[in-house]
Amino acid sequence: MGSRAVLLVCRSPQEAGARFGVSSAPGAVWTRTGRPFFPPPLTASLLDRVRAAAEAAGLFAELDTSWLLLDAELVPWNVKAGQLLRDQYAAVGAAARASLPVAASALEQAAARGLPGVGELLDRTRSRLANADAFTAAYLRYCWATDGLAGVRVAPFQLLATEGAVYHDRPHLWHLALTDRLAAGDPSLISATRRVCADTSDPAAATAWWEELTAAGGEGMVVKPAANLTLHGGAGQQRLVQPGLKVRGREYLRLIYGPDYTEPANLTRLRQRALSHKRSLALREYALGLEALDRVAGGEPLWRVHECVFAVLALESEPVDPRL
Question: What's the pTM value of the predicted model, to 2 decimals?
Fold first, then answer.
């Protein structure tokens, strides 16, 4: 599990400052809401290494650009979300694992004395304890110690834009081949993104790959149309296809829905969800993102780019079913 980040990698600090207003820096690393991901010294160190990898791969020359804008994941999760881990996940797991064993022990003693009506409650408490253990294991799987950049991994998966060009019309395999070249330039920092090409008429191979991935502790996969930007509908009525769909694993979903989400009654409740509003928001945000990238690549003033960005942030403030 990683944190989504956008990397602006420039050949020189002057180029970054002139175009993006991040003077005296070799670029920037932003969170998905536009905030700095790391403190300035760590940002500079990371970008120096990514820039060196891009130079070694010949990307600046090949794409005739002075900067690269990359979509990526950064791991481990605790490198950015340590407070969230402590407050939202570790606290839940610790409270459950402190209280439930005591409750189970008391119920076992009651059952041993033959008190009526205890068996069902004991079974439920044991199940909740097992779920709490699984919940704790789920988030610990994505956390490890780091020291500066030691232990940090960057996994770029798409080139968003360069000077004068955007790339959402390029197929995903083109993007992944490019990021593979980046990873080869600094394999101790940059990770290649695993992928499988799925035949939608026979999804068995992709399903088996996902099952193996999640059984080994992976978060899951993102299913995307191979062509990247995809439209559907007849002439004059074409609409965007959702650019990706996260298909997370069973254990990772405990972090989203809670330790006991796999209990039958909870699964029944969670399946009663309306997805149309969420999909509509995703498509509108996607369209605004494409427009923002067109404006960035075209050299338009930052306020023009910010129009699209603020619109995305406004959409994200709309209420959505928290179970989605």
Answer: 0.87
